[in-house]
Design brief:
- It is a multi-pass membrane protein.
- Keywords: Membrane, Repeat, Transmembrane, Transmembrane helix, Transport.
- One of its GO terms (cellular component) is membrane.
- This is Mitochondrial dicarboxylate/tricarboxylate transporter DTC.
- This protein is an all-alpha fold.
- It contains nine helices and no strands.
- The N terminus is likely disordered.
Length: 315
């Protein structure tokens, strides 16, 4: 009797222990996946956007070769060279874009959810969302800069480039010769530009989607398309001043015979606003807007499609 009762109790404990164990594994997975999901969404959106834009760009370039050089017997050689460049650069660009988009969208989503939880479920203010965009841009720019600088060095002359056999060989070579932090040497200007561009891009999108869908009454796709165009405009507007600021900074540094010291800021302002000077900060905003719009619109649409697919699969 006692043995049978003991056996019965033991039989009841075993399923319970298995149940608790499996629940613990499930609970841990349930905690991990929501954290990883924004980064996975950003990775997939970046890859899809890159393949679309890269393929369209090189198709247009090859078509231009054919149109302009049809009378030239070297046309076939040029097309082969272009195709070789596509094959050589696509893996690197895929890695660059995967790194940037993953850090960009993943960190922004995590930050906005943390701030929303701190607000008690209330929507983020414009200031809070802008701060999240700045931080997200800083994270993405910091991750992306080593790849961008190595790619820039690979396009220089043979005397100045750093053993560019492939990306990882260049990373390891530069780390061994100059140290780990040399990968981020001179990254301040690039990262700061990415911060303000991402602030304009990410902050304007969600608010534009809400405005177009609720106030204007557009469909979901139309609202996303319009919000993508608006976010591309703000990204261009925030990013346009930085090349001109860099040009003024280089001009000051090249002027070795003059000591600007504490008047550097005033000198920069004078160079910007003086008659006929550098007050063309926003003269190229339309050109930048046209250049950014196709890429960012495609990126936002891909991200929304990936999010919808993930939700549809119940992940």
């Amino acid at each position: 009797m006692d043995d049978s009762e003991g056996f019965t109790v033991e039989e009841k404990k075993t399923p319970n222990s298995i149940e608790v164990s499996s629940y613990g594994v499930y609970h841990r997975n349930k905690k991990i996946w929501p954290t990883l999901k924004p980064f996975v969404n950003g990775f997939l959106a970046g890859q899809l956007t890159l393949l679309g834009c890269y393929g369209a760009y090189w198709s247009a370039k090859l078509t231009l070769y054919v149109a302009e050089e049809a009378h030239d017997h070297r046309n076939a050689a040029k097309i082969r060279t272009a195709l070789h460049a596509v094959r050589k650069n696509l893996p690197h660009w895929k890695l660059f874009q995967a790194t940037y988009a993953t850090a960009q969208f993943g960190s922004f989503d995590i930050l906005t959810k943390k701030v929303e939880a701190a607000n008690g479920g209330l929507r983020l203010t414009l200031y809070q969302e802008a701060c999240c965009g700045l931080i997200s841009g800083g994270i993405a720019g910091s991750f992306y800069y080593p790849f961008a600088s190595l790619r820039a060095s690979s396009s220089q002359s043979a005397e100045t480039q750093i053993n560019y056999r492939n990306l990882f060989a260049s990373l390891s070579h530069k780390t061994r010769s100059e140290g780990l932090f040399a990968l981020w040497k001179g990254s301040g200007f690039y990262v700061s530009r990415q911060m303000v561009m991402n602030m304009g891009l990410l902050t304007s999108y969600s608010r534009s989607v809400g405005y177009f869908s609720e106030s204007v009454g557009l469909t979901k796709f139309q609202a996303q398309l319009g919000a993508g165009i608006v976010s591309a405009f703000f990204a261009a507007a925030c990013g346009c001043p930085w090349p001109h600021i860099a040009a003024i900074k280089r001009m000051i540094q090249a002027d070795g015979g003059r000591k600007h010291s504490h008047r550097d800021a005033l000198y920069c302002i004078w160079q910007v606003f003086r008659p006929g000077g550098q007050f063309k900060i926003y003269s190229e905003i339309f050109k930048s807007f046209l250049r950014f719009t196709p890429y960012y619109v495609m990126q936002w649409l891909n991200l929304e499609d990936v999010r919808a697919l993930v939700e549809e699969k119940g992940l």
